Structure formats: C-alpha cells, structure tokens
C-alpha cells in the first residue's frame, strides 16, 4: 500500500452527482512543491475525468513547533516568533499576542499606542490583501495584477521599514504598547500612501472586476453557504462573502476599533468572485479606518506601566482578533512564572483550509487552484 | 444560562471567571451531553477552538477545552474538562464539522483520542512519528531520530 492509498482510505466516496460515464476514478497528487499551493501544501485529488470527487489536504511541512517554543521562552522573547506564523500579516499576529498578554497582566496600552497599532495593523491588512490579490490573479492566469499589487505593497513596507527597521516580520508592538515612537513625518507618510493608494484600488478593479476571463473563472466557483462556513468554523472574508455580516472588530471590538466608523462588506453568493469583491471592499474600509486614525493620534506615552520581567498571575485567557484571514486567537495559560505554561494559537488559515474539500467537490481541477487562492491561506500559519 | 445548566447538571459544573472571561469546569461524564445542549439549545453554533493543556503532576493530567462562540448571542464560552492519561473523549465532529482538524491536532500534540472521529490520525507531524510533542515530558530538543534517519536520510534534524 502506498502512502497516498492510506491517506485516502477514509475519504468519503459519495459523488456529488451521478457520473455521466462509469469512468475509472483517478487519484492525482498536487504539491507539496506546486507553485499554486502558496507554500508547501499537498492536495490529493480524487477525480472523475476533470471533475473533483473529493480531496484531502496533507499539511505539516512547515511545522516548527511554535507552541512548544512558546513554553520555553519568556513572554517577551516569544513575541517575535508569532510574526513568523502568518508572515504576510505579521503585525496582526503581534497585535493579537500583545493584547492577550496585556489581558493576562490586566494592563491596557495607552491611547497613542492604540492609534498607532490600528494604523499599522490596517496597513498590514491592505498589504495582506494586496499580496493575496496578486498571487490569486496570477494563479488564474492574469499576470499584470501581481506587478500592480507588489508595486503598491512596497509603499506599505517602506513605512514599516522606516518605523521599525523591518519590512516583513516587523515585531512592531511590545507587550504594553510600542517600543518605538513614530518617526518624524510618519503621519504624512501614511496620508501620502492613502492618497496614492485609493486610485490604485480602482486600477485593480478596472483590470479584474468586469474582465470576462476573470469573471468566468471565479463566478460560481467554490461556492460555500454561510451555514456551512459557520459549521466548519470558517471566518474572515470567506465567511463574509457568504453573506454573514460578522467581523470581530465590530462584534467584539478590541484595541480601539470602536472609535472608528467603517462598514463590513459582505457578499451574497459565497463564490470566488464575491470573495474577491469583499476583499477589495475591505481594502477601501481599511483606508477609511486609517484616515480617521491618522488624524486623531493623541499625544502621550506609548508604553503602559509594565514590569521589566513579565510574570502574570496564575490564570488563563483566550483573546482573538480579526486578522486579514479570519479569527486569530491566542489561548495563554500562566503558571505565575516568566514563561507561558501553554500558548495555543488558533490560526484562521488552518481552520479555513478544512473547507477546501467542501468547496471543490463537483468542480473542475482548474478550479481547485482558484479555490486554494481564494481561501487566502498562508502555510506558515497552517503548520505553525 | 449558567444557572440553567447548573440546574440540570448540579455540582458537575463549576462556573468561573478570569480576566472578565467566563469559563466552565465540567465533569468528564457530562461532556457529550453538555456540548449537545450548548450547540442545540444555547445556540453556540461556532466551535472556535479545541485544545489541551498538560499538567503532569495532577491525578488527571489533561485539561481539554472547547472555545465556543454564539453568533446569535455574540458571546464566547470556554468549556474545560479534566481527563486522565489514556482516557478518550467523544468526538464533536457530528456537532461541529469544523472540529475535525482541531481534534486531530489535539491527538497529534497530546495523544488524546476522540471516539467516533472519522479520521483519527496525526495532522502536523508525519504518520509514523513517535511521541506527542506538547506533553510536558517531551523535551524541546527531542526528535524521533529513527524516523528522521529512515525518511530524511540524515543523521539528525538538529
């Protein structure tokens, strides 16, 4: 018995509809070294001709034991590690982790830090969606959006570089606030970026929204209903594109999101095209949030009173934020020492990827590529 | 809600709060029933996370916990239960299909099995790996040397 046989043994053989011809089923392997799987994801497909009867994901190729490492580092030392999970949205990971530990310590970051955090996190949401859009379009066959989005994403990375010296794994936040005061001209840089970026979103939309090839490849592909999303635990833009108006920034506001006025874009059909529209609309909403935040940054300290050695009291806390991919949760148990007793990360990509089987059944092989793209997974976060 | 649950289950349920977050400590025997009630009667329709914590010095060394969320109530709750080594738990895949990979991860990392799970096998580590790394008696530098040598053709992964 080969390895793929055993991996397939449990697969539900029920076909979505009765096959037209009694053709032999074909099992093919995609990945882990496939350019369209966004990292090292292996998918075992069970096909009838071009039609997908079912699939199974094999993950873990990037497993680094982040949760185990967390138990052997101090609270402060573990902070940069979380950036390495979802490495295209490192700032969001850092925000979730810092807020969880702050909850455990019962401190709150000062207002100035909160505003800077929101600006950087929303910039990160835009950067993450840009990277998603470029690569997703590339997978489907449109090369140009990749150049556009990477060109514009560069401007965000430049702001990060000027702010904290790093572009990707930024380690921008500290437990209790920020380590660095913003540099002179930070606000102006952010404003310049917003002015530069708004017309660029229109440019992306001009390229894709009414593009016949794009619409044909994405509309009615990978449909998932809101009910199925909830049952499978799928969150983020995928859930919203299926018509469920739920965003943690509104449902259970963290940081200071309650101070900002923004909408939650939703879709109706839950197909790949709607997820594209939702994410593009989310970029516009992020711009709105940053516009408000950058005008309202208060003066004041950037760090709360946090002891040099962080030793939270015995207890456990679950805290989650709306990362660009969905609900990113941290469950941290403290035993009163300087190291967390247990750090659990609830990664949105990992849970969302479970829906791949459901979304691909009955579709064509080429659509699997589109659906993997539209889920917006980052394997660093799936495997941790 | 807690009062109602206490009414039907009595002393098997302990309601606790830490840092403004509610969680309930539940007897292992109540688990299948209680999760059903939370899903079907109390509208906790979204299983956010399932995970475990290992306390090797305790009589019942494992805490297993479910983080649940209700869209209708906009409320989160954590259900924690304690089990001994080797004890199994009922799978919640029939209640929340999304529990599938989460339970597999708990099995992979802690060796806790879930009865009735459609595919109870490792998820992040390779199938033949020995040991469950998030147990406290698994040192951080430990690896399955045999597996590494056979499958990767190298002396050691370190």
Molecular structure report:
The complex is a heterodimer of chains A (384) and B (158). Chain A has 384 residues and is of the alpha+beta class. Chain A is built from 16 helices and eight strands. In chain A, strands 1-2-3 form a three-stranded antiparallel β-sheet. In chain A, strands 6-7-8 form a three-stranded antiparallel β-sheet. In chain A, strands 4-5 form a two-stranded antiparallel sheet. The longest helix of chain A is centred in the N-terminal third of the chain and has 30 residues. Chain A is globular and about 65 Å long. The N terminus of chain A is likely disordered. Chain B has 158 residues and is α/β, with parallel strands linked by helices. Chain B has four helices and seven strands. In chain B, a hairpin with a 2-residue loop joins strand 1 and strand 2. The interface between A and B is large, with 42 and 39 residues.
């Amino acid at each position: 018995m080969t390895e793929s046989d055993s991996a397939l043994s449990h697969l539900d053989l029920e076909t979505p509809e009765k096959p037209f011809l009694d053709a032999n089923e074909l099992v093919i392997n995609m990945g882990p070294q496939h350019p369209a799987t966004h990292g090292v994801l292996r998918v075992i497909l069970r096909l009838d001709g071009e039609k997908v009867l079912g699939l199974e994901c094999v993950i873990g190729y990037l497993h680094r034991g982040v949760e185990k490492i967390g138990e052997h580092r101090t609270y402060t030392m573990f902070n940069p590690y979380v950036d390495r999970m979802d490495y295209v949205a490192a700032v969001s990971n850092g925000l979730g982790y810092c807020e969880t530990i702050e909850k455990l310590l019962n401190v709150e970051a000062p207002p100035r830090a909160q505003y800077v955090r929101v600006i950087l996190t929303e910039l990160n949401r835009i950067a993450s969606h840009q990277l998603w859009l470029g690569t997703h379009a590339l997978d489907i066959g449109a090369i140009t959006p990749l150049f556009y989005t990477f060109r514009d994403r560069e401007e965000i990375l430049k702001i990060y570089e000027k702010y904290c010296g790093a572009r990707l794994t930024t380690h921008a936040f500290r437990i209790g606030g920020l380590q660095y005061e913003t540099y002179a001209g930070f606000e102006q840089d952010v404003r310049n970026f917003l002015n530069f970026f708004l017309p660029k979103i229109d440019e992306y939309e001009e390229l894709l929204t009414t593009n016949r090839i794009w619409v044909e490849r994405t509309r009615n592909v990978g449909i998932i209903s809101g009910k199925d999303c909830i049952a499978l635990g799928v969150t983020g833009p995928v859930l919203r594109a299926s018509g469920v108006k739920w965003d943690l920034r509104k449902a259970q506001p963290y940081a200071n999101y309650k101070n900002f006025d923004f909408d939650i874009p939703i879709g109706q059909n839950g197909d790949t095209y709607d997820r594209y529209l939702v994410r593009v609309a989310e970029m516009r909403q992020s711009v709105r949030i940053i516009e408000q935040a950058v005008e309202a940054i208060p003066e004041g300290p950037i760090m709360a009173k946090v002891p040099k050695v962080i030793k939270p009291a015995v207890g456990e806390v679950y805290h989650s934020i709306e990362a660009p991919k969905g609900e990113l949760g941290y469950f941290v148990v403290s035993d009163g020492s300087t190291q967390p007793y247990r750090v659990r990360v609830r990664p949105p990509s990992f849970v969302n990827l479970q829906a791949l089987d459901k979304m691909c059944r009955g579709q064509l092989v080429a659509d699997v590529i589109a659906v993997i793209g539209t889920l917006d997974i980052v394997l660093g976060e799936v495997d941790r | 809600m807690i009062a109602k649950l206490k009414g039907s289950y009595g002393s098997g349920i302990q309601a606790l709060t830490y840092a403004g977050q509610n969680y309930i400590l539940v007897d292992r025997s109540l688990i299948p029933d209680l999760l059903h009630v939370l899903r079907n009667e109390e509208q906790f329709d979204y299983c956010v996370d399932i995970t475990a914590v290992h306390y090797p010095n305790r009589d019942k060394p494992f805490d297993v916990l479910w983080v649940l969320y209700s869209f209708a109530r906009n409320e989160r709750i954590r259900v924690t239960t304690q089990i001994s080594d080797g004890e199994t738990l009922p799978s919640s895949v029939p209640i929340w299909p999304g529990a599938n990979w989460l339970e597999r991860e708990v099995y992979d990392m802690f060796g806790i099995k879930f009865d009735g799970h459609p595919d109870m096998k490792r998820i992040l580590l390779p199938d033949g790996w020995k040991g469950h790394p998030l147990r406290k008696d698994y040192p951080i530098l430990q690896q399955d040397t045999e597996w590494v040598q056979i499958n990767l053709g190298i002396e050691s992964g370190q």
